[in-house]
Amino acid sequence: MKKENSTNSINARQLKGDCGTVFTLSLIGNRWKPVIIWRLLDGKMRYTELKKSINGISERVLVLQLREMENDGLIQRLIYPEVPPRVEYELTPLGLSMEPILEVMSAWGLDHMPQEQEVPIKVAG
Amino acid sequence: MKKENSTNSINARQLKGDCGTVFTLSLIGNRWKPVIIWRLLDGKMRYTELKKSINGISERVLVLQLREMENDGLIQRLIYPEVPPRVEYELTPLGLSMEPILEVMSAWGLDHMPQEQEVPIKVAG
DNA sequence: CCGCATCCGAGAGGATACTG
DNA sequence: CAGTATCCTCTCGGATGCGG
Fold it and tell me: Does the keyword Transcription regulation apply (chains A, B) (predicted)?
């Protein structure tokens, strides 16, 4: 809470802050991208692996998100010319650089969620 | 990039991470809320003040966002029974606790935006 | 001054069937 | 296996007019 500016006009810090957050959220401020990045922080994954690990996402949406993230330079798509086909997704350095943001958001969320229920760890492996 | 888990199953860190980020983004992961919080970090503001300071937002959307944020406990609405009416919006402690998140997102955004153009500071005051 | 009511278009995200 | 192709719903956000 800085009151360095006592007038009602907007200051540069605010405008730049807007800019930054708006840009950041344009890349990851939606339903699935943070989850995808979170998964890929443990290393590259194949398409079906991602799909199975992300509960509730549809195929269409997963592909759309992956394509957008590839265009934004957050992930890299690795295609192996094999039969059956094999595609892996991997974070770029830019994507990796988002880890601190996700950590902060995750920590705040866990701290302030209504009732912190422990997530069941049991997952089909 | 932690590879503490070499199997393909999901681990607890990931699930909790999802949870936290999804919850956090459900509160501020949209077009205007980060900007509104950013404004209020400098202190409480009146409705019209907010409207003028946030370029491009419509009245309807501003009110909707403010109501949602009030319901989520991020801001407090202060009504002064005067004529003409006077309403001020102020961050709650919960809303204030989001400052670090916005700072991190803003910093990352400014660092990685295509061309960092200086924002013109000239604003009608 | 501070909204609320109404209408509207765009697009995000979902379900499902099909293909190289 | 790794996607396309359709179709559909629902919410977000915008424009505008009115009311206490």
Answer: yes
